[in-house]
């Protein structure tokens, strides 16, 4: 069965992005392969390996630089699902991650929107257990 394995996130600099996604957001550095000519294949993923990984692609043109931080025109871009909202919210806040709102309860779970270092919008979400019909 096919699967989406990677989502490209355009970044200004590989090293600053790795530091942010690993240290601040708590992801794992899955791969950092030098491809020659200054190019790198850099992949980070949520700890535990659930879901798609992020391919951190360093911008190489003005058009790509213009997209850094706003790849979706101001909409939430990515959803980081957790099994313990309070733990991860506290850890991320202590690391300096900017949450745009307080946690709120929605029919599907507990959620709060945050910004990555570039300004991309994310939701940190802990889904509620499915209810029976």
Structural features:
3 helices; 133 residues; 2,3-Dihydroxybiphenyl 1,2-Dioxygenase, domain 1; 4-stranded mixed sheet; alpha+beta; 5-stranded mixed sheet; 9 strands
Q: Indicate the overall shape.
A: globular
Please give the count of helices: 3
Helix vs. strand class: alpha+beta
Please state roughly what percent of the residues sit in beta strands, choosing from under 5%, 5-15%, 15-25%, 25-35%, 35-45% or over 45%: 35-45%
Produce a short descriptive summary:
The protein is of the alpha+beta class. Helices cover 20% and strands 41% of the residues.
Describe this structure in words.
With 133 residues, the protein is an alpha+beta fold. It has one domain: 2,3-Dihydroxybiphenyl 1,2-Dioxygenase, domain 1 (Roll). 20% of the residues lie in helices and 41% in strands. The chain is built from three helices and nine strands, in the order βαβββαβαββββ. The chain has helices at residues 14-24, 62-67, 85-94; strands at 6-11, 27-36, 39-46, 53-58, 76-81, 98-99, 104-106, 109-115, 121-127. Strands 5, 6, 7, 8 and 9 form a five-stranded mixed sheet that branches. A four-stranded mixed sheet has the order 1-4-3-2. A hairpin with a 6-residue loop joins strand 3 (39-46) and strand 4 (53-58). The longest helix is centred in the first third of the chain and has 11 residues, at 14-24. It starts with 5 loop residues before the first strand and ends in a 6-residue tail after the last strand. The relative contact order is 0.18. The mean pLDDT is 93.
């Amino acid at each position: 069965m096919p699967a989406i394995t990677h989502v490209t996130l355009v970044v200004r600099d590989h090293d600053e992005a790795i530091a942010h996604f690993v240290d601040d957001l708590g992801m794992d550095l899955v791969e950092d392969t030098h491809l020659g000519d200054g190019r790198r294949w850099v992949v980070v993923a949520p700890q535990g390996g659930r879901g798609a990984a992020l391919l951190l692609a360093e911008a190489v043109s003005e058009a790509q630089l213009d997209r850094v931080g706003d790849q979706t025109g101001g909409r939430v871009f990515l959803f980081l699902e957790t099994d313990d909202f309070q733990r991860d919210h506290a850890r991320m806040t202590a690391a300096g991650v900017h949450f745009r709102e307080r946690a709120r309860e929605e029919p599907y779970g507990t959620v709060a929107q945050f910004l990555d270092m570039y300004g991309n919008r994310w939701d940190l979400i802990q889904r509620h257990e499915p209810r029976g019909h």
